[in-house]
Amino acid sequence: MKTVLITGASSGFGLETAKFFLEKGWRVVATMRNPRADILPPSENLGILALDVTDAVSIRNAVEAAGPIDVLVNNAGIGWLNAVEGTPMEVVRDIFETNTLGTIAMTQAVLPQFRERRQGVVINVTSSVTLMPLPLLSVYTASKAAVNAFTDVAALELEPFNVRMKIVLPGRAPATSFGDNARSRIQEHGGFPEAYASVVKSVFAAWEQQGEADITHAADVAQAIWRAATDPSSPMRIPAGADAVALAG
């Protein structure tokens, strides 16, 4: 039985991916900052662990408790939407600490076992916003684009050890709690600068015009992650969701 460790499994893409892999008969190690057993179906193949990807001790403890794994899914992340001018540097640091440095730290933590076994897959969940510049997403996009670049280079280093690096690029998923969490974070830091009101209005208007068939659903991301984990011939970058597929061309 193969084992997958998923970060950020308390909601959205991570939670859906944990359920998907359980249904496929895998052992799932679902990690989250505040562990909750009630959000996943009871299973002898399920382990739930506390993990803060910005904390080195938390990472070490979680990886040790998980035991040998076959696939790491770096899904934990925080969202942000604002003009550069409306983004405090403390927020920039928080976003990069989780989205970028947390992904790198988790990858470093599992690579020794993958390299020694000459087998393993690291799947980094980034975003389709890295495929096309969009207003108000400069900092978030930068944090995810850095992960894309990190993955590209790490893949070259790890190829001789039969360790695969993959990127899954979801589109906009309004049904998940990701956007709500981002909005509350924006309000905590003063909201959008008044000078950018017209830009904000145009961005939200464009989103309102998206139909149900033109957005990303959590199931799309789970299926893309499954493909990345199980199909060695899959491309390094896999868009997930109708809008992401359209952007990827």
TrEMBL record:
Question: Has the keyword Oxidoreductase been applied to this entry?
Answer: yes
Q: Which UniProt keywords apply?
A: Oxidoreductase
Membrane-spanning residues: none
* Gene3D superfamilies assigned: NAD(P)-binding Rossmann-like Domain
Task: Drop me one GO molecular function for this one.
Answer: oxidoreductase activity
A Pfam family it matches: adh_short
The record ties this protein, via InterPro entries, to:
NAD(P)-bd_dom_sf, Sc_DH/Rdtase_CS, SDR_fam, SDR_oxidoreductase
How far does the signal peptide extend, from start to end residue? none
Family statement drawn from the similarity comment of this UniProt entry: Belongs to the short-chain dehydrogenases/reductases (SDR) family.
Q: What is this protein called?
A: SDR family oxidoreductase
